[in-house]
């Protein structure tokens, strides 16, 4: 196993040049990059980084609602995702990570029924896998419930894998989202050993005092930033509720040899490029100690 990072937190903090990101990452002990959508798909820069051989680029990530029918937004996102599959295939980038998309009829009131979107998602995924197989690229579905997604639980993974049978379709497994949805992040590593193509290094802290006051339906929005009533938050690896020793042990048990890609969305370690960099290094060091024993 090797430790990498998702470029998003660095680009959001102002480090937007992929060459600069790759150099910083290598100098600080990372060995792989998962490149987010804010980085330009410049073939020369990507090729030069890969040819240099110091740090790999094994994945591109593009999570959006591909089934959004408003103003052809979903159509545009589909085109961007297919563009990334073609780009990855051409440059020998192994994986493209994405969401599934979700239809608006899956939402009613405060409830969400992902099964309402299964038919539309199945049609889209079958189309997507034709592109992936043509370009010899693996599609790894993230289990994040945000950004337009129904592959949010082991039950829904079973439903989708049953309907879309492809050895190129698997998971970008993110244990942090299983914590705040009260699912087991450990046992499912063993159960889905053959479908885990990629792994996100992110943690979650459940704020039980707040939870007892507001319940699970009270969530913050970007508009309100109502943090005093937030009942869970993403944390750096090692600062949340996940036992990373157990996570790594289970990954070793299934023979996982891929990347643990640090995804920094910790509000405590944001606010400046320096804090983001410190956060990424802190998370990497926590994961690395279990890999190295």
UniProtKB/TrEMBL annotation:
Matches recorded under Gene3D superfamilies: Divalent-metal-dependent TIM barrel enzymes (3.20.20.150)
Listed Pfam families: AP_endonuc_2
InterPro entries: IolE/XylAMocC-like, Xyl_isomerase-like_sf, Xyl_isomerase-like_TIM-brl
Coiled coil spans: none
Highest taxon of source: Bacteria
SUPFAM superfamilies associated with the record: Xylose isomerase-like
Residue ranges constituting the Xylose isomerase-like TIM barrel domain according to the UniProt record: 55-271
Protein name, as recorded: Xylose isomerase-like TIM barrel domain-containing protein
Organism: Vallitalea longa
